[in-house]
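Figure 3 (text version): structure tokens given as input.
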């Protein structure tokens, strides 16, 4: 796949992942190793003052020298080399937000399906057209979106895309190591710790300090498999 589009070095995509001091330092190490194993690079952003919404706001507004932004949680990785081809196929339809399906079980009786911030991709042109929606859960943002309680950046962005007539393209659980939460979709009713999406993307969940063993096992199995 062509990574550079023209002489101005406008890239087709850039991958970003955020973490802070609460994350076991081996987690970003292994994430980077998996991406390198498949021939990709991931841009790590370490910041102890940013919330996840702050990080997304910064990247979405500041990084404009690429056609598509691809966001991974620090404990989320591809498990196949061709994951990007599948992602780009979904992104070819204009004004699309593509990523992993999730729901917040504590809101709207769980029936609030959205594209999660732990893995998603969107075009930089489309973000500009949306006027860079604020992805922080501040009191002002919560009230303006009629949310009774805190939600995450993925739900904010998903609902902004829907309000503006864009397309939400969900990647669904295809394997779950430990079922934990309801997804409230008839064909994909559950997700949980160590969930794989579209047979391409793996998210460990909860990889903080001493809760990272599941992620390390998965990364090592991928790196040692080829």
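Below: residues designed for each position.
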């Amino acid at each position: 796949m062509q990574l550079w589009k023209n002489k101005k070095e406008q890239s087709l995509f850039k991958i970003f992942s955020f973490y802070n001091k609460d994350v076991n330092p081996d987690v970003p190490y292994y994430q980077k190793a998996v991406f390198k194993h498949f021939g990709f690079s991931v841009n790590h952003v370490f910041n102890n003052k940013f919330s996840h919404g702050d990080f997304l706001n910064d990247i979405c507004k500041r990084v404009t020298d690429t056609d598509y932004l691809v966001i991974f949680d620090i404990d989320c990785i591809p498990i196949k080399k061709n994951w990007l081809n599948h992602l780009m196929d979904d992104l070819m339809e204009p004004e699309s937000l593509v990523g992993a399906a999730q729901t917040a079980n504590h809101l709207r009786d769980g029936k609030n399906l959205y594209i999660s911030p732990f893995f998603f991709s969107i075009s930089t042109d489309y973000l500009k057209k949306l006027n860079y929606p604020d992805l922080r859960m501040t009191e002002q943002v919560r009230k303006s979106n009629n949310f009774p309680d805190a939600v995450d950046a993925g739900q904010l962005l998903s609902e902004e895309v829907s309000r503006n007539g864009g397309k939400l393209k969900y990647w669904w659980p295809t394997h779950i190591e430990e079922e934990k939460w309801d997804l409230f979709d008839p064909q994909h009713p559950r997700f949980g710790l160590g969930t794989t999406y579209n047979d391409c993307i793996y998210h460990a969940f909860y990889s903080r300090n001493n809760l990272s063993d599941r992620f390390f096992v998965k990364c090592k199995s991928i790196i040692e498999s080829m």
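The beta strands are 11-19, 43-46, 66-73, 76-78, 96-102, 114-123, 167-171, 173-182, 190-197, 201-203.
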